[in-house]
Specification:
Elements: E1 6-8, E2 17-22, H1 32-38, H2 70-76, H3 78-81, E3 120-121, E4 130-132, E5 138-144, E6 150-154, E7 162-163, H4 166-180, H5 183-186, H6 188-199, E8 219-220, E9 226-227
Antiparallel strand pairs: 1-2, 3-4, 4-5, 5-6, 6-7, 8-9
């Protein structure tokens, strides 16, 4: 059974005859001004009086507060709850992944540190908690465990690292990823110079292979200095005790 047609404007201050009878009560207004005046303090879906909620500022709202789903209902059926046959919400045309709210790459979820400008985090909305470099290779990965803590899965750290907050987990994962990054992949010139310096012999030559002591009990400090076991004029023996001597 269809609802009765409305022939007059619903605004109590107007009540003029509509140009065309309508079935939808939300369209029973002669002008947009009457529509706005009628729903100034009412929810546009359930028509509840928002001034009776007792919360300051509710009279200026368009819909009821959550957990009421009035706004979701209006977004679902804009032609039904909007003025006339015009939608109250703009039409959404999805033509690519960039319009769905999912972000990828450096422009999506970059790290907070400026020195990591070539790295980016995956989308947490799809449970992608991985840190990638500019080529898309995984540098670090954190997972949410059953106890509610975020643990570092990659790179492997001993002891295992975990954090209670997602932001702290991301900062910690970035630090461990920096420590695990080879120097050659970051600064090849510096890595090559360090490798060359380590492979080149010291100009002063190799250190002398000195024995800790001689067979006569004297310790050598260099080619021309020595410490000998002697007695002072007072008769105190300053020689090295037997338990401190090294075995030959």
């Amino acid at each position: 059974m269809s609802a009765a047609l409305r022939h007059r404007c619903r605004n109590p201050r107007c009540r003029l005859k509509l140009p065309v009878p309508v079935e939808n009560e939300h369209h029973a207004f002669c002008t947009r001004g009457c529509f706005g005046s009628f729903y100034q303090n009412r929810c546009r879906v359930c028509e509840h009086d928002l001034r009776k909620t007792g919360k300051r500022g509710d009279a200026g709202r368009l819909y009821c507060r959550p957990p009421a789903r009035c706004r979701q209902e209006a977004e679902k059926w804009p032609d039904k709850y909007g003025y006339g046959l015009r939608a109250g919400f703009p039409e959404t045309k999805l033509s690519g992944a960039h319009s769905t709210g999912t972000k990828f790459g450096i422009a999506g979820y970059p790290p907070t540190a400026r020195c990591l400008r070539d790295w980016w985090w995956g989308d947490p909305g799809i449970d992608d908690l991985s840190l990638y470099n500019k080529d898309g290779l995984t540098l670090a990965r954190i997972v949410l465990e059953e106890d509610g803590r975020y643990r570092l899965r990659t790179p492997i750290a001993i002891p295992r690292q975990s954090w209670s907050d997602l932001d702290a987990a991301k900062r910690g994962a970035e630090s461990f990823a920096l420590m695990a990054t080879p120097l050659a992949s970051v600064d090849p010139k510096l890595a090559a110079r360090i490798k060359k310096d380590n492979a080149t012999p010291h100009p002063m030559g190799a250190p002398l292979n000195r024995r800790p002591h001689r067979t006569d009990g004297e310790m050598l400090l260099g080619t021309s200095s020595k410490i000998a076991e002697t007695k002072t004029d007072s008769g105190i023996d300053t020689s090295i005790p037997g338990f401190l001597r090294r075995a030959s």
